[in-house]
């Protein structure tokens, strides 16, 4: 009983950790399809239903992606009568493989960005976060914080360049380490 609870706890943790990736994967296989969210939920339900089949210590993300892919294929089969665009199985396989690779790249870039943002001074972090969270134009935002638009534009450009350089270095180091 305790072992079953531990297995389920670990599975919940793994599933929670890969939700962003799983969602991106499903949406990538179903670009522009409003049903992607429903298919993701069906994939989550199927993952939970098959939880006893997962062997701890193996690649959970690959296992979950395979289940999600089958859910997408099942959805497409159900919609085939009404579909205007149907991908061949070869194209599905190619897209799925590319999305898995892109997902890994995206997660690496996201981690690098988080690290590089944390390495900035708090004032710079705050400026970037507030600027990009604001719906205002650059000129309106600059006026609100008491800076010239030109000066703010230069500062933001420098911060973006610093972040880009930091991310490039971090990703290169990560690539050399693998």
TrEMBL record:
Residues 25-81 form the RNA polymerase sigma-70 region domain. It comes from the Bacteria. The keyword Transcription regulation applies. The keyword Cell membrane does not apply. Gene3D superfamilies: 1.10.1740.10, Winged helix-like DNA-binding domain superfamily/Winged helix DNA-binding domain. Keywords: Sigma factor, Transcription, Transcription regulation. Transmembrane segments: none annotated. It holds the Pfam family Sigma70_r2. GO terms for molecular function: sigma factor activity. GO terms for biological process: DNA-templated transcription initiation. Belongs to the sigma-70 factor family. ECF subfamily. This is RNA polymerase sigma factor. It comes from Roseimaritima ulvae.
């Amino acid at each position: 009983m305790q072992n079953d609870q531990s297995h389920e706890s670990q599975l919940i943790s793994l599933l929670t950790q890969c939700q962003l990736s799983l969602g991106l994967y499903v949406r990538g296989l179903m670009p522009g399809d409003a049903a992607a969210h429903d298919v993701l939920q069906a994939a989550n339900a199927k993952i939970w239903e098959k939880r006893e089949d997962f062997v701890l210590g193996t690649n959970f993300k690959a296992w979950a992606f395979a289940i999600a892919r089958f859910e997408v294929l099942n959805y497409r089969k159900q919609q085939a009568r009404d579909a205007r665009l149907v991908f061949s199985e070869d194209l599905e396989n190619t897209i799925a493989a590319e999305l898995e690779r892109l997902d890994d790249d995206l997660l690496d870039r996201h981690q690098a960005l988080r690290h590089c943002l944390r390495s900035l001074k708090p004032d710079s972090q705050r400026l970037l976060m507030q600027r990009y969270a604001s719906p205002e134009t650059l000129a309106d935002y600059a006026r609100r914080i008491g800076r010239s638009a030109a000066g703010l534009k230069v500062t933001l450009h420098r911060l973006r360049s610093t972040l880009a350089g930091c991310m490039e270095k971090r990703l290169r180091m990560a690539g050399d380490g693998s």
